[in-house]
Amino acid sequence: MSGTTPAGSLDALDASDAYRRANEPAELVAMIGTSLTPEADRGAELVTAEPHECWHRGDFTELVRQIKAGELKAIEPTMLHRTDGLAILYPGKDHALIGASEAGKSWVALLAALEVYRAGGVVVWADWEDDETTFLLRWVAIGGDPDDLLTGRLVYIVPEGDPSPWPELVAGAALVVIDTVEESAATMGYQTNERHEYSAWNRFVVRTALDAGAAVLIIDHVPKAKRGDPAPREGIGSVVKLNKVRGAVFMLETVSPFAVGRGGHSRLTISKDRGGALG
Asked: I need a surface site. Which of 62, 84, 221, 270 has the fewest CB within 10 A?
């Protein structure tokens, strides 16, 4: 990605109190509707569905019929097209965009959002790091219209307080942007370096959007690599972040810094592509 830079916290719970409660299974069930037995290992993934919803033998007759008839094929990426025409975001799948500060992560996400919006889709942008003024100035800088924010198809929120409206907010969305995972999880009382806590956050925030049929783009910061170590392939915290992504993971690296009125250059590379359609 190259060009010229244009001119231009969920407080439902006290973080320390939320962390304490998150380690008490009965409290955690009350907080996010999650089932976790007292004897469960700390590293165990949390299960949000009731047993009768997931612990049963499925009837795959229709699935088999559709595949044999050629009616069901692998999902192809349809969003965020490169200059060569290849799209890199899968509909209905989650993706991670990881990079250092000032690499242009939010700008890449904005390009995806504008493309989806112009195609008639609904975009939800959940911003735990900035505010509506910065968002709208950037939206206009990449070619959007300020009135887009008034149409109901561009939904911008700075999440605060009770998170229960989240399922309603993402219903019908084609793209949901989480900006950023670290701030979102922290303000909800979760630590992303703890596997089971990240899983709990992911189940509520990401899985809810996926269940609504949206593609999800999670913006994340990259940890600092130690001297001599290879470049990291996942964001700050638990490796479960990388493992859980069902779409693709992208790394964004600054080649030459961006500045107002001066061109810059960042390199976008694929770290993981579960669908295998990105080449």
From this structure: 84
pLDDT at 38 over 80: no
| Percent of the chain topping pLDDT 70 | 74
Nearest in space to 114 (alpha carbons), one of 61, 177, 72, 65: 177
Q: How far is CA 111 from the centre of its chain?
A: 15
Q: How far apart are CA 89 and CA 248, in angstroms?
A: 7
User: Is the bond preceding residue 180 a cis peptide, omega within 30 degrees?
Assistant: yes
Residue 111 has pLDDT above 80, yes or no: yes
Condensed to tens digits (0 to 9), the pLDDT of residues 204-251 reads 999 999 999 999 999 998 866 556 665 555 555 556 678 889 999 999
Residue 87 has pLDDT above 80, yes or no: yes
Query: What pLDDT does residue 23 have?
Result: 38
Q: What share of the chain is helix, strand, coil (3-state, %, to 5)?
A: 35, 20, 45
Angle between helices 132-141 and 105-118 (to 10 degrees): 70
- CA neighbours within 13 Å on the CB side: how many for 167? 7
Residues 96 and 249: their CA atoms lie apart, in Å, by 5
Cβ within 8 Å of residue 253, ≥6 positions away? 99, 100, 103, 231, 266, 267, 269
CB atoms within 10 A of CB 199: 23
Pairwise CA distance, residues 209 & 173, whole Å: 8
Which pair of tokens denotes residue 57? 């033998």
The three-state secondary structure class of 161 is coil
Closest alpha carbon to 278 in 83, 97, 86: 86
The residues, ordered by sequence, that sit 6+ positions from 127 with a Cβ below 8 Å of its Cβ are 135, 156, 157, 158, 159, 179
